[in-house]
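INFO batch 0412 | record 1 of 1 | parsing
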Amino acid sequence: MGNLSRGSDAATSDQASREKCVTRRISSSVTYYYSPLSEAGCPPKPPGTLSSSLSPPAPPVADSMSQSHSASASRPLLVFFSWFGATPGPVAKYRDLYLDRGMDVLLVQSSMMHFLWPRWGLDYGLKVLNILEEPQFSKRPVLVHASSLGGYTFTQMLAHVAHGEEKRRGLARRVMGHVYDSLVVGSLEYMAIGLGKTLLPRFQGLIKRIAMLYFWLFKEQTADFYERSVRVFHYSPITAPALFFYSEDDALCHTEVIESVMDLWRRRGVAVHSRKWKESIHAAHLRCHPQDYLSTLQHFLNSLPLSSQEAEI
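INFO prediction complete | emitting tokens
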């Protein structure tokens, strides 16, 4: 799964996002988006900009792929850990935000089984880390954007960074910033509520009771793992600036818990930014508060030492 070269043979052009990116599927759950040759190494075109009729003809496909990869390797990489069940349309909106800033995007999608059986989530986190250590990505500055359950997947990767070999810790030095949107934080009960709302909203009460029984029956394989994950996140090896998006009415994100994490990080010397709303929708703050969300994100990204193009979001 972690071998990018195997996925490159099956690379296909993607006409999404106004034909501004190429899609390379690395595995069934990890996808890489990068600018094609016409934009590689060049400032992103503002929306609506037309190509010049005097533009030189496109080079052969093989040369195009090679040159695109070369130019791409010099750009920052956004690693987007999406929420569970994310569909292409909503994900594309986040992807395009970063493509428009001259970054490439690595989309990491999570499975509910990664959460329900944490050992599988830990294995998956290691696979994602191995991908980020491949030659095409290993020297690039990284920005992380984790949404909902994606924050859990990112934490499983962090566990390997925090407790692994020195080469694993190199990722922590490459991360220039991290964004957290609608993290699922709180007690086991909060997690059980989250499962109900995610899997079967109409039967969330029943799912919650089943989940609590499951956590009790398999405490060593679930609850104990979650506690260790919480400690890893609290004392994350990544100390780059962070941005949190959350709302007071989010049943999956305990406000006091997320704010205590931010306070702890500030005491550890992390520059923490945040935007809280009284009312919003879990993992849909961008849709509910687009202008506020985008302006906050823009301000945060402008404060980071990323060598990306200065395209406006």
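INFO post-check: The longest helix spans residues 118-132.
INFO record closed
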